[in-house]
From TrEMBL:
This is Energy-coupling factor ABC transporter permease. The chain crosses the membrane at residues 12-31, 43-60, 66-84, 91-111, 117-136, 148-170, 190-214. The keyword Secreted does not apply. Keywords: Membrane, Transmembrane, Transmembrane helix. The lineage of its organism: Bacteria, Pseudomonadati, Pseudomonadota, Betaproteobacteria, Burkholderiales. It comes from the Bacteria. The keyword Mitochondrion does not apply.
Length: 230
């Protein structure tokens, strides 16, 4: 979703909250030492490829009439592939790299970059959908049978769509009521969020299906002994 103008008075309070949330999430992720997963050579290649893919994904965006910017998140994909702690740290790297890429494409100088937008982008496109994805996937593991088809459909399609819908709706409501400068009405924004959720579900579900079949070693949340009975 589109970033706030960091120079308005109302946005300053929001940025303070978002920075605290971001730092707390990354501190928790660091405490879990997720980089130990990357000792596996096969997973290193998948992780680096995912970073490149998501950095490109966060750089590509569509601007709707009224100025609303829509971007796919990819947060559910990162959680499914690498687990929540590593996903949270990886998404911040994606945020940083894509932000610098957008600044380069816009022709701006280093001093002209609006660094404050890093935090809203990270929270609304990375942190919140990742947390929702992890919660949804945890519920699915407890309540649904362990079957590869259930994993692909649930963790890939449904978790991605619902997480994107929840994060996008929360962002729209936050902007509408706490900042109050939305150029589109709340119903119009939620309609755009619904479209985004379908795209997020399709892309994530397709990639999860491909990786589970051809590169299951890249999917740390998919264990052969649980889903294939090995």
């Amino acid at each position: 979703m589109d970033a706030l103008n960091p120079f308005t008075t109302a946005a300053a309070a929001e940025h303070a909250v978002l920075i605290v949330l971001s730092l707390a999430a990354m501190a928790w992720a660091l405490s879990r030492r997720p980089w130990q997963l990357l000792r596996r050579d096969d997973l290193q290649h998948g992780w680096l490829g995912a970073l490149v893919l998501l950095a490109l994904l966060w750089t590509v965006r569509a601007t709707l009439p009224g100025g609303l910017v829509i971007q796919l998140f990819g947060a559910t994909l990162m959680v499914t592939l690498f687990g929540l702690p590593l996903a949270l740290l990886s998404l911040f790297l994606v945020d940083l790299v894509s932000f610098l890429g957008l600044g380069y494409l816009a022709g701006g100088t280093w001093a002209e970059l609006g660094w404050a937008v890093l935090w809203p982008r990270y929270v609304w496109m990375g942190l919140l959908p990742a947390l929702l994805s992890a919660a949804l996937q945890g519920g699915m593991r407890r309540l649904l049978p362990r079957h590869p088809f259930v994993f692909i459909l649930g963790h890939g399609y449904f978790a991605a769509g619902l997480a994107a819908l929840g994060a996008g709706a929360a962002r729209a409501v936050w902007r509408s009521y706490s900042v109050g400068d939305g150029v589109l009405s709340l119903p119009d924004t939620l309609t755009a969020v619904l479209i985004l959720a379908f795209g997020e579900a399709f892309l994530t579900g397709m990639l999860v299906a491909v990786f589970v079949v051809y590169k299951p070693q890249w999917v740390v949340t998919f264990r052969d002994e649980e889903y294939l009975g090995r």
